[in-house]
Specification:
With 392 residues, the protein is an alpha/beta fold. Helices cover 38% and strands 18% of the residues. The chain has 15 helices and twelve strands. It has a seven-stranded mixed sheet, with helices on both faces. Helix 6 packs across helix 15. The longest helix is centred in the last third of the chain and has 25 residues. The radius of gyration is 21 Å and the shape is globular. The relative contact order is 0.12. It binds adenosine-5'-diphosphate, acetylphosphate and magnesium ion.
Length: 392
């Protein structure tokens, strides 16, 4: 079989995650953190001297990509790239599967920028930059929204006039690459229960929940945009739309000020007044930090209650992403408040972040390490023409 290598790029609002896969092996993986302020590449599982890393002088995704590609070529020039795969947060109504990035698709994705203003522009900037760098290399879009196209129609609808629903004002849902990856890990982690009623809690900088049956998305907390649902690092989540009308009409806020409030100034950061990072809040003894953490937990518990009602019960609760994987006190508080569901957390297993956290009876509880890049690799390869058969 021909050898295949994929560069996976995951453009986040404040970071760029990168992984280079060669066949089954991951050759290098890392995150460019604080991309809009002071970008620096942190490689997974390695303490690399800074002079061996790319020198990132400009800020933003467009500025870091050229030095990153030069560095990758210098370090891994022996890896014959077959394609680049991108996480594209919004695929709208028409993309239920990954696809090759033809010019018409890129134009269509540009139209979705208002629906994902933090994520869609950096992904599109990377697609343009990669095309300029390697004009003939196939590029594939892997959509966060695609995983949720399986939701029953009622769970995709807002109670709005039909004409708006028909226009595509729907609950799309996000974090689909993370959920798809988690679902693949479930048979090994929870056995036959993977076919049952499962809730996955993706708690990272952005946060959402997904209710699944037989591995298919049934409902999710994010909606038309990634603003809905849970409280997040800098996003409020679920909010009475009357608050927005009040700010517009009574307080004279402009639309761009409201956008900033919703995407940047709310959530853990807004409530604590300190930080958008759960680590800082858990380490702080400021009352406002404790309140932000308590509200975060309260919102998770309340939304899980709603999803359990839709599923008609719960067979497993799975945590993933930065907070879900690493913040034992958050998992503990959520599980404590869900004791009425028969959830019983093994505190020792929770403290050591073990894969299985339940005490053997009641719903299974587990942790899956998020790996959107592995899902990007898999989806990207699936979009490429099959390898020519090896000569006999
Ligand atoms: N050890 C930890 N304890 C508590 N929270 C953590 C820990 N490690 C990471 N986090 C949280 O995870 C968040 C980032 O999660 P991640 O899934 O990497 O987000 P994203 O991909 O959206 O940038 C951080 O903002 C931080 O709040
Ligand atoms: C969709 C979304 O919120 O993504 P992230 O968690 O990467 O910000
Ligand atoms: Mg993320």
């Amino acid at each position: 079989m021909t050898s295949r290598a994929v560069l996976a790029l995951n453009a986040g609002s404040s970071s760029l995650k990168v992984a280079l896969f060669h066949d089954e092996r991951c050759r290098v993986r890392g995150t460019i953190e604080r991309i809009n302020e002071a970008p620096h590449l942190v490689l997974d599982g390695a303490t690399t001297p800074s002079d061996a890393l790319p020198r990132l002088t400009g800020t933003g995704h467009t500025a870091v990509i050229a030095p990153l590609l030069d560095w990758l070529e210098a370090q891994f020039g022996d890896v014959p790239l077959s394609a680049v795969g991108h996480r594209v947060v919004h695929g709208g109504r028409h993309h239920a599967a990954p696809c090759l990035l033809e010019p018409a698709v890129v134009d269509e994705l540009r139209e979705l920028i208002p629906l994902a203003p933090l994520h869609q522009p950096p992904a599109l900037a990377l697609i343009d930059a990669l095309h300029a760098h390697w004009p003939t290399l196939p590029q594939v879009a892997c959509f966060d929204t695609a995983f949720h196209r399986s939701q029953p129609w009622l769970n995709q609808c807002f109670a709005l006039p039909r004409r708006l629903t028909e226009e595509g004002i729907l609950r799309y849902g996000f974090h689909g690459l993370s959920y798809a990856h988690a679902v693949r890990q479930l048979p090994e982690l929870i056995g036959e229960r993977h076919r049952g009623r499962v809730i996955i809690a993706h708690l990272g900088h952005g946060c959402s929940l997904c209710a699944l049956e037989d591995g298919q998305s049934q409902a999710t907390t994010m909606g038309f945009t990634a603003l809905d649902g849970l409280m997040m690092g800098r996003r409020a989540g679920n909010l009475d739309p009357g608050v927005i009308l009040y700010l517009l009409q009574q307080k004279g806020w402009r639309a761009d000020e409201i956008e900033h409030l919703l995407y940047h100034d709310s959530g853990l950061y807004g409530v604590s007044g300190l930080s958008d990072d759960m680590r800082d809040l858990l380490a702080s003894d400021a009352p406002a930090a404790a309140e932000a953490v308590a509200l975060f937990v309260r919102r998770v518990v309340r939304e899980i209650g709603g999803l359990v009602a839709l599923l008609g019960g719960l067979d497993a609760l799975i945590f993933t992403a930065g907070i879900g994987e690493h913040a034992a006190p958050i998992r503990q508080a959520v599980c404590h408040d869900l004791a009425w569901l028969g959830i019983k957390l093994d505190d020792a297993a929770n403290a050591r972040h073990a894969p299985r956290l339940d005490r053997g009876d009641g719903p299974a509880i587990g942790i899956v390490a998020a790996d959107e890049e592995a899902e990007i690799r898999r989806s990207t390869l699936a979009c490429l023409p099959a390898s020519p058969a090896a000569p006999a």
